[in-house]
Structure formats: C-alpha cells, structure tokens
Amino acid sequence: MLNLERLRTLDAVARHGSVSGAADGLHVTTSAVSQQLSKLEREVGQQLLAKNGRGVRLTDAGLLLAEHAARILSQVQMAQADIEAQRGQVVGEVRAAAFPTAARGLFPAALAALREGHPDLRVRTTELEPEQGVRAVLRGDADLALVLDWSNKRAPVPGGLERAHLLDDTADVALPAGHRLAGREAVGLEDFADEEWVSWPEGEFCHDWLMFTLRSQGIEPRIGHFAGEHHTQLALVAAGLGVCITPRLGRPVPDGVVFVPVHQKVRRHIYATWRADAGRRPSVRAVVAALRAAADPLGS
C-alpha cells in the first residue's frame, strides 16, 4: 500500500524540481524529505531519484509515480472539499498569500473578522509577489492568493483557477516635497518625460507595466533605482532621487513626499484567486467574503 504522505513528498519534488524546494514547500527539513523518499523507494522496489550534478532528478519510475501522485492528491483534495462543503462548516486551515501592499492593506481587517466570526478556522498567511502567489496556488502550496493587474495591462487567469475581484486601487505619482510639480492638483505622465524613475525590480509584472505605460505616452523611461518595497521607493523619492507610481492601498506616508493624482487615472485591479476545486470549500468562501468586506471601503 502506497503511503499518501510519501506520495505528497514525491509530488513536491516533482513540482519544485529539487529536494530543498520540496522541503521549503512542505515546511519540513531536507532530511525529512530524503527519508520519506527512501521509504517510498523501498515500498515500490525501484529507484525514484538519481543524482544530477549537485542536485537530483526523477528517474523514469519516479516520473511515472509522480504523475500518479499528482492525480491521487488532486482526488484527495476534491474529496476533502466535498466533505467540507457537505458539512457546511467553516473549519480547518486556509493558506493565503498576498503581495506586500495587499497583505498590509487587507489581511489585518479580514483576519480579525474571520477570527471573530469563525473561531474554528485558522488562516495562515505569507507574503508573495503576484506571480509567485499564482504559482503557489497552482502547485497546491497555497489555497488562495491575492494578485493584481492594471487597467491598461491585464493578466490572464491560468487554467484551473478562479478569481474574484476585490477592489480597484488608484495610484498616484509620488514626488519629492520640493518638486516643481508638487503643488499641482493633477499631473500627466508626459510631465515627467525628463525625470528619473524609481521602479519595481526588472522582470516583475509591475515593472513591465510601468515601462509599457510610460512608452505608450511617448516617454522612454529613465530608471535610476529599482526597489521592490514601496517603503524603499518612497524613501528614495523623499531623498530627491526620482519619482515613482504608488498605489493607495496600504501606502506609507513618509515625510518629504507629496502624492499627486494622474490625469490618466492609473488603477490596478486586485483579485483573490484559488483552484477551481477549492471553491467548494466553505472555509475558502469565507476567506474571500472577509477579504471583500475589508476591501469594500477602500475601493476607488
């Protein structure tokens, strides 16, 4: 009889591509992963992993069993969702991921409401950028993730996922307090054609959006600094080292920075996303409802 937890470990190695990645995803040690896989190899009587340079790869037998493991675990998840739905009780655990501003702007109110309304539900949260959050949901490492796209650059929904719109979050231009445009009621992006910008790191969806948006206005961006956190971006702005786009949700307000609205109405859309088979779980539906309630007074 194949052991379900050992199949889950093999599935994690297949999804993450390494023993250390599987250990991180399962929140266990690499030694625990290796032990589970050794036991599974003894159970099936075949080698499942082979050395590959400094890492490992799945053998043909390992790949075959990993495919079966993924289907078995999917069926188990569906069974758990159906049983939970039949009970109609908001219990158990939901693993939720969110990018930093959504975690800061939405999680506190939503989690406090869930703790009061559903004391038998545990919500475990982590911060992940939107692309990482989507991958975590697809892999099964998270039950739900908060993700985003922009009004002029939409992000597709991967197959097998569903999503719910939470809010539209307006963004402003952040300027040093002494900037020549700091007193304006509104500005156009074309007003900053000669400015240095502070951007999100290269390769991130929001950086690609900023490049696309500025170029659509005839501006070839001059990026002086890259920073993932809005706190860091705004600290650079306060020091007079550039300007940046800053959404309003969860926004810090440091000294020396002025926020000015944009004529072009820059907005990002924030969603909750989850696997379609998890949508039947009352616990997942309760978390989405709490996030919607937390977002309702914040939309713009």
Mean pLDDT: 88
What's the quaternary structure here?
single chain
Strand content: 15-25%
Low-confidence stretches: none
- Using only C-alpha atoms, the radius of gyration works out to 23 Å
Number of helical stretches of at least 4 residues: 9
Structural class: alpha/beta
What does this structure look like?
With 300 residues, this protein is α/β, with parallel strands linked by helices. It is 42% helix and 24% strand. It has helices at 4-16, 19-26, 30-44, 60-87, 100-117, 130-139, 205-216, 230-238, 282-295; strands at residues 49-52, 55-58, 92-98, 121-127, 144-150, 161-176, 196-199, 222-226, 244-247, 257-260, 267-275. Strands 3, 4, 5, 6, 9, 10 and 11 form a 7-stranded mixed sheet that branches. A two-stranded antiparallel sheet has the order 1-2. It has a two-stranded parallel ribbon with strand order 7-8. Strand 7 (196-199), helix 7 (205-216) and strand 8 (222-226) form a beta-alpha-beta unit. Helix 1 packs across helix 4 and helix 5 packs across helix 9 (282-295). The radius of gyration is 23 Å and the shape is globular.
Q: Mind sketching the topology for me?
A:
Layout: H1 4-16, H2 19-26, H3 30-44, E1 49-52, E2 55-58, H4 60-87, E3 92-98, H5 100-117, E4 121-127, H6 130-139, E5 144-150, E6 161-176, E7 196-199, H7 205-216, E8 222-226, H8 230-238, E9 244-247, E10 257-260, E11 267-275, H9 282-295
Parallel strand pairs: 3-4, 3-5, 7-8
Antiparallel strand pairs: 1-2, 5-11, 6-9, 6-10, 6-11
Kindly summarize this structure in a few lines.
By secondary structure, this protein is an alpha/beta fold. It has helices at residues 4-16, 19-26, 30-44, 60-87, 100-117, 130-139, 205-216, 230-238, 282-295; strands at residues 49-52, 55-58, 92-98, 121-127, 144-150, 161-176, 196-199, 222-226, 244-247, 257-260, 267-275.
